[in-house]
Write a structure and sequence with these properties.
Layout lengths: L17 H27 L3 E10 L8 E6 L4 E3 L4 E7 L3 E6 L13 E2 L3 E6 L5 H13 L4
Parallel strand pairs: 1-7
Antiparallel strand pairs: 1-4, 2-3, 2-5, 5-6
């Protein structure tokens, strides 16, 4: 009796060949890598932004004594009816300082990330040194 050769099973018609799988995986890796690089590059570049800064003045000092500042670019704007507009970038930090018109005083609020609309609270109840400065400002710039 002649020996029969073992037959290989017929390939399934719906099976995806290994070469196609590796090609699909390579394409996916390239596309996702390109997308990640694009997003990193897009977010790394600062974009111009106009920021509306609203002053929440919790001091007994006139609003004119303060101004909005962005760092690190140094853009400045004074408050008019408790609102200031800064032309800066989306990577900037926004804070409130004493208006440049009054160089004898120092005050600096906490920093906020730049956004289209930012509200910064100015609180006069912060420490002895700051309190002395703010007391001097209150005396000179009392609200009317």
């Amino acid at each position: 009796m002649p020996d029969k050769k073992p037959q290989r099973p017929a390939p399934k018609p719906d099976a995806i060949p290994a070469a196609l799988w590796s090609t699909l995986i390579a394409i996916t890796v390239v596309v996702l890598g390109g997308l990640a690089i694009f997003l990193i590059m897009e977010n790394a570049t600062p974009k111009p932004m106009r920021v509306q800064v609203m002053l929440d003045n919790r001091c007994e000092v006139i609003d004119d004594a303060f101004m909005a500042v962005s760092e690190p670019d140094g853009a400045k704007a004074v408050f008019v009816n408790r609102v200031a507009y800064l032309n800066t970038t989306n990577k900037a930090k926004i804070l409130v300082k004493v208006n440049d018109k009054y160089p004898g005083f120092q005050f600096e609020s906490g920093q906020s990330d730049a956004a289209p609309r930012v509200t910064i609270k100015v609180n006069c109840d912060t420490g002895d040194r700051t309190q002395r400065t703010l007391d001097a400002m209150k005396e000179q710039f009392k609200s009317k």
